[in-house]
Amino acid sequence: MAKTLLEQLREMTVVVADTGDIQAIETFKPRDATTNPSLITAAAQMPQYQGIVDDTLESARSTLGKDASAADVATLAFERLAVSFGHKILEVIPDRVSTEVDARLSFDTEASIRVGRELIAMYEAQGVSRERVLIKIAATWEGIQAAAVLEKEGIHCNLTLLFGIHQAIACAEAGITLISPFVGRILDWYKKDTGRDSYAPAEDPGVLSVTEIYNYYKKFGYKTEVMGASFRNIGEIVELAGCDLLTIAPSLLAELQSTEGVLERKLDPKNAANLPIEKIHIDKATFDRMHAENRMASEKLAEGIDGFTKALETLEGILEARLAVLEG
């Protein structure tokens, strides 16, 4: 019997579910799962998860006291809700879940360190080992420095909103556990910038970016894992077969699961070893220069932080409204 693309992909790449929907995770049985404020917001509005939301709000109110504002309760509840969903997700996957630091702290190193420690403390209070959690932080220079501190404390990090090789190299040099370069968002930018309707998968700018990062890491022996993210179609996924990890939305997992054919491994450390790649050292000045020169990365990083911030504000509004209902 022929194997599906998803079955073959799992033989060469760790498949991660890009969702906060626990039922979807149970369906596709990924090794890891990754969430962000947008995904948590979507999950929090599903009727089947109302009990988790209500319990989290009541716990936050109890912690802060009856005199705390609804806004303060909602802010604390967001962090706890992310951990609550993460804990539930870890009950159905064998390995790790990613939980995001507030995007509004993306340029604040000390605050990001504090929140990263707090999130891990919440998980550990629920009996979850820090080895099973990745703290997600935006790949700004400040975020990378925060993650470097956390890594030295045994808190593993996933650097997100990553669009350029300069961000990837800075993460590798800082000893970060994992990075999430955004394939689909890069494609979106190039389509808008060039006016093109489409790109062939092998020419997709997002695919080329992740391929460049993967080959650089393998060429120079970095331990940081590459997890392609934000896919628009299965063609992008097929072109990145062999990447360390790929985090994929349930709709695309379903398409991969229903599609048969031969899946060729496209990314391989053996091939990377022979490529003529120049090594680059990234300090802050180099990072800032390369970031300024990369219009796509500059615009998409700013847009991503803004998008996650708005999703978080939406979630806090939903939590405030639900708190009002609970408190009569």
Specify the CATH class: Alpha Beta
Give me the oligomer status: single chain
CATH fold group: TIM Barrel
**How much of the polypeptide forms β-strand, as a percent range?**
5-15%
Spatial shape: globular
CATH superfamily: Aldolase class I
Tell me the radius of gyration: 20 Å
How many individual β-strands? Answer: 8
Main sheet, how many strands, which sense, barrel?
8 strands, parallel, barrel
User: Any low-confidence stretches, pLDDT <50, length ≥5?
Assistant: none
Secondary structure: elements and pairs:
Blueprint: H1 5-10, E1 14-18, H2 22-28, E2 32-34, H3 37-44, H4 50-64, H5 70-90, E3 97-100, H6 109-125, E4 133-138, H7 141-152, E5 157-162, H8 165-173, E6 178-181, H9 183-194, H10 205-220, E7 225-228, H11 234-239, E8 245-248, H12 250-257, H13 269-272, H14 284-293, H15 295-326
Parallel strand pairs: 1-2, 1-8, 2-3, 3-4, 4-5, 5-6, 6-7, 7-8
What would you note in describing this structure?
This protein has a single domain (5-326), classed as Aldolase class I (TIM Barrel, Alpha-Beta Barrel). It is α/β, with parallel strands linked by helices. It has helices spanning 5-10, 22-28, 37-44, 50-64, 70-90, 109-125, 141-152, 165-173, 183-194, 205-220, 234-239, 250-257, 269-272, 284-293, 295-326, and strands spanning 14-18, 32-34, 97-100, 133-138, 157-162, 178-181, 225-228, 245-248. α8 runs parallel beside α10 and α9 crosses α10 (205-220). Strands 1-2-3-4-5-6-7-8 form an 8-stranded parallel beta barrel, surrounded by 8 helices.
